[in-house]
Write a structure and sequence with these properties.
The model has no long low-confidence stretch (mean pLDDT about 95). The protein is built from 14 helices and 5 strands. It is an alpha/beta fold. It binds adenosine-5'-diphosphate and magnesium ion (MG).
Amino acid sequence: MGDHLAPKAKAMLTASEGERLQYVMAPKWIGYARAKEALSKLEDLLVHPKMHRMPNLMIHGPTNNGKTMIIQRFMRDHPHNDNPDGDAAEVPVLTVQMPFSPEPRRFYRTILEQLFATYRSSDNLANLETQAIRLLRACGLRLLIIDELHNILAGRMDNQRQFLNLIRYLGNELEVPIVCLGIQSALRAIQIDEQLANRFEPFALPTWEDGQDFRRLLNSFEAVLPLGERSFLASDNMATAIMAKSEGTIGEVLMLLRAAAKYSIINGISHVNEGVLGACDYISPRERRRAAER
Ligand SMILES: Nc1ncnc2c1ncn2[C@@H]1O[C@H](COP(=O)(O)OP(=O)(O)O)[C@@H](O)[C@H]1O
Ligand SMILES: [Mg+2]
């Protein structure tokens, strides 16, 4: 029993119900092909020789489709070293979230806070900028990542332009590649600045469609669900049902399968089947939208 499972999931078969449920909910990395491609692009950028115009990358795709997860995985391999005995911390890669309102001062304050720097919140933009750039150099920054770039669009047009200038300036000053992540509209935001647009290579993380890659993903998920018997998630019927309910983002697929596994465990069912997919505690995006409209 459980020969289709990854070792950890297999070991879980004999654990208590509580432990199995916890294991189902625990975050796990699944390395599907497109994510591995993105990671290898990030690795390439990290070792790119310094030059005036560094190449940049724009990872775009629908929300809940694994963009941030790729960055988290990348950060695991390139952690900060606080270097308590040395002078400056070593920060080869820094990830900042674009603030909800795109104000440059706020952006620099976010950077300084992440680096545990003290600053005067009353400081003007020029000072904050100088301090942030000096510190980022001292930390040996080699790659800057900006998540949720689409938040730029929440600002007025002149704010948006100002921010894109800032990104271009940072790239030039630090001579590091910049990686941005965001939904489709983030790509549009970058287009506002022609020079910047030319320097960003788009990398799409599109909604999943049924096909070989999707079936592979389902098999990967199945291997970590602590259920004794095979569910054949990658069979035609199951794959079609999962795709229809989840609408094809990896986050929704995972949420559905977690709910299904939970249902199976609680009800003593040894695998997931179509009945379980229908009965489990998962509300599809479509149903959620409908509920919101009511
Ligand atoms: N490679 C992956 N392996 C396992 N789970 C993933 C993976 N990518 C995404 N997920 C799941 O999908 C959810 C949404 O992913 P996230 O990276 O936050 O999406 P986005 O940043 O595109 O909105 C995550 O909480 C995680 O549970
Ligand atoms: Mg995200």
